[in-house]
């Protein structure tokens, strides 16, 4: 299956996968407004990849076929200070009053 991949200028590390190049008819209007003007990146054959958009090939194809598009969001950035505080039995956010 071929997919056209687009990046967002509004949202860093956010990509949109669609069935056909320049065909956004299956993508909800609200999502396109938030995504901004799609910038074409590449046309890929998902059948030749073991993983696509950070997912196993079979998972990507299943999700893509459900909606006829796929939105790849950036990975969540781990808050190391929060993890350290929780590991030490403290609140996520310190009680600091200035």
From TrEMBL:
Pfam family, one: YcgL
YcgL domain boundaries: 1-85
InterPro entries: YcgL-like_sf, YcgL_dom
UniProt xrefs under PANTHER family: PROTEIN YCGL (PTHR38109)
Name this polypeptide is given: YcgL domain-containing protein GCM10007852_05750
Organism: Agaribacter marinus
